[in-house]
């Protein structure tokens, strides 16, 4: 049965695999404007929130805008509606449009912006360029009536709990007896108010990385039959997966820097790009950092990259990288626009799997400010 979700429900689908905790320190991600409790029938995914994008959103009767670049990147001291930013805020509030941003968390997340970029380039066997965070693991111990065990266990696994190496839905289960006395204001699933109740229960033990901990506990609360789910949670002295910015991998075969750079013009439909290095040199190991990633050129070089693909490269950074032997290709910051359709497709699949009824659209507005002559 389909249901109309709230903005919070939609955001939860995204934060399941791209949680805010993955974002770089100080990066303003999450809710920008509006309310997460409002019902959502139409979602617009965009790279930037500009006046043209908001006009598009209004025309499509959009309830929720999900952007990559945060609308409120810098703190505001005033909202002047005679300015472009002020008009954007005014129009969103006037038309009851909630605005949410997934920025560096979407860059860092496995299956996010940087993975979409390397996939388009045909780069294989990728690793992280700049490690930023490491997951810490928790042990969840949930106490569940025997007849509900399969449902709860499956839901926890589907939410990402119990993932160990190449195995998923890993749990340990033991049997016991739970006891409780329902209070006067309760509506117990089992037993009667004021009476000591004995229930045959199973104890489900599983591991959870802290990046999805809140999501898994939310799922447990929704699928557990008790009003107050019984569970224990404690940290483990084990570390989980590394996360980070950028990806580095290899092309299927070596090619010249000239040929590789030219291929990016076609892949990302850009009319011009900047290249640093000998155009005739052979390259095969490619590092990619979406957005403004040239500050990490030394990490890319140390990781073995022949060339770094990133945007917003500065003059002296280019000189330093060239002197060190690292080629650079700058196709512009705007190639991150690949996230519009990719994220819309991912959210659409996740929404369908969750039984949510809504329309998710990739913005058709081109927010690239540069023109190549």
From TrEMBL:
Pfam families reported in the protein's UniProt record: DUF34_NIF3 (PF01784)
Keyword Cell membrane: no
GO molecular function: metal ion binding
Keyword Protease: no
InterPro entries assigned: DUF34/NIF3, DUF34/NIF3_bac, DUF34/NIF3_sf, N-reg_PII/ATP_PRibTrfase_C
Binding locations of a divalent metal cation: 68-69, 107, 333, 336
Gene3D superfamilies registered for this protein in UniProt: 3.30.70.120, NIF3 (NGG1p interacting factor 3)-like
GO CC annotation: cytoplasm
Keywords, comma-separated and alphabetical: Metal-binding
PANTHER family: GTP CYCLOHYDROLASE 1 TYPE 2 HOMOLOG, NGG1 INTERACTING FACTOR 3
Family in the record: Belongs to the GTP cyclohydrolase I type 2/NIF3 family.
Protein name from the UniProt record: GTP cyclohydrolase 1 type 2 homolog
Organism of this sequence: Salicibibacter cibi
Lineage: Bacteria, Bacillati, Bacillota, Bacilli, Bacillales
